Amino acid sequence: MSPALLALALPLAGGPALAAGDPGGALSASTLQAAVLAFHRDGLGDVGGRRTARLFDEACTAGHALACSAETWSTGPLSAAVGPASAACGQGDGVGCVIAGWAHEAAGDPGPAATAYAAGCAGGQPRACAEQARLAGDGAALARACEAGLGTACSARAALAPAPEDAARWLDLGCDRTDAESCTARAELALRHPDLALPEDALHQLLEQSCKQGHARACHHWGTAHLGWGLGLDRSTITGVDPLVRACDLGLARACGEAGGELVRGRAGGHRVDQGRRVLAQGCEAGDGPACFTLASTVLALQAHGETADPAPLARQACALGAPGACGWLGLAQATGLLGGAPDPAAASATLTAACDAQDADACAILATVRATADDAEGARRARQQACAAGHHGACADLARPPAPAALVRAPATDRPVPKKAAVPPGLGVLRALDARDHALAICARDPGPACGIDLAAQLLTDDARRLGPMPARAGFLAGVCTPVAPSACLAAGQALSAAGDPAGAATALRTGCGPEGLGPLACTALVETLGAAVPTLDDQVALCHGGHPAHCADAAKGLAAGGDAAGATAAAAAGCAAGDKAACKVHKKQTGGPPAAGAGPLASHLPAAAEAPPPAVVLLDAGGTGPGPGATAADDAAVVEGAHPALMACSQDARLSSAMWTQPVEARITLAENQPEPTAVVLRLPGGGPPGLADCATAVLSELRFPAGAARVLSHAATLVQQPPALPPVDPDAHHHHH
Length: 740
What we know:
The chain is mainly α. Helices cover about 60% and strands about 5% of the residues.
């Protein structure tokens, strides 16, 4: 047997010709374990570094030279260990060979790494043999090392397995040998593949124990399971956030953004804003864009409580790192001065245009809104086309539908009071600010209506915790996008103009938004409060009548009749009478000689039928003035796309590493050439981001669809994949018993 295979057959703590002064291998084992923790190998880490320092000290005290110099090579990047580790390897120290190999691999030099591993293996270091076999893809050697007791070799061997069932066998062996990477990977395999499921209590044990050992991914899974009702656990933010913080401290950057967001929102027990900021800063410095984005929002929200830090650099960094929604938020903030200072339209245009040109669909949608407020209708249309081309279904729907009517008047709705504002602790202030931002960024994905970009702007620009900076500029922006079909923008504009000391402008905005749809009733109630004791104008009376305040309908009808608008007068009287206002009924009877027609809503004929129905899931963007070919309809196209939902769900199930309930919005733009049934291009978008691998899988599914042959056309599709996972099947615990 060759020296390499001989060493692989030996346990970790033994082997011939180990480092001088360490005949039993205990010193080498301590130094190796310390290096694993210091450099986050095997998914492990040491929060605080206390265990790592103790292991190095023990090995140094017993005479292991490499451990004695650990402070010079173990506290920085792995590349700093190349020189000391290579020198130790040359003197016969097998652990030095292992560390030198890691360092060379990190530098992208597999050749020197293989040489170092071979030297360590020839000297009797089992881990060096396992690393050599892993680098060479030598499954047989890894199998021998795993079966001989080297747990890390088991997880490396599982990575080479051709089928999940084979991988599970090696991971079970590795987990029995207390290898945290094997245990974590086995839990992930169980969640991906129902045929390899484990009982929920076994999954709990695998993840919890691996997290306690310092495995970052295990902590992340354990935390997200608590936060998302996964693995049969009751949802507990307080229990779930601490493992996420540990995963962040162990070097998993994306966990920092997730944990920090929960902490600063005040949803993890108390208002742990300071801890949340530390965690977010840690993730941002490690290159996690969402952590930078949430930190920027947090700093901005805390300015209402005396914060002096500048959120602008954080917002720019989040945009540069590609955090979903960050570039659009930054551009809108620059356009309105939200981040402090005067509005900077040039900077906003540069930010949004660059992001839009890079196919950031959200940035394109916001760019369209910003250009629309600058009376650049053609620029807004081009930006909307770019958003559609990047897969933004809302923008595609906007382009496909006819222009919205100047006013939508429908049956009055029940009054809804304006919520009273109250002082809140800093934690809840941040919570409101961040939730407003997150809600805004998701709005277009949920509601691809013509005003979704306007709603997004309104949400981003109006929150109590962020009423700072040039309010008149923000109020002017909102007033510019306020229309009867965007009552949320009108309500926001009214609030902003009122705060800016312009009650007349506030009344104008609220009057425009006063209506029965969306936030219109709130705008009506706010208009009443704004008017106070002032006598309503005829425009006020008409708006309030059709916006759910029937007491104004009789006066509105009389005023309209006096002005020669007989149809408007009749509609106003009918609206009030239908809502039970006796004075309006008398006016209507006087005008028409009878009561309103039963069930007939006032001015119903003014509302296009398309606006009555929810937006279709599949929108045809008719490129050539025609639709599908003879015998085929747009409904046939929609049926083809909707038939792909089971396959899309399978993609998402494969991509997820949690059995939690979840939803995933998916938007796609599908291009069809003339008389070609297969798509010529598919652009997929996952609003808010998505799990790794989902985009590629879903794009492949949609690319394989076959449509009725016909004219060249483009389809825009929006769907939300929802999963409530079934209970895991019962499994014999004795068949999956793991020792920790």
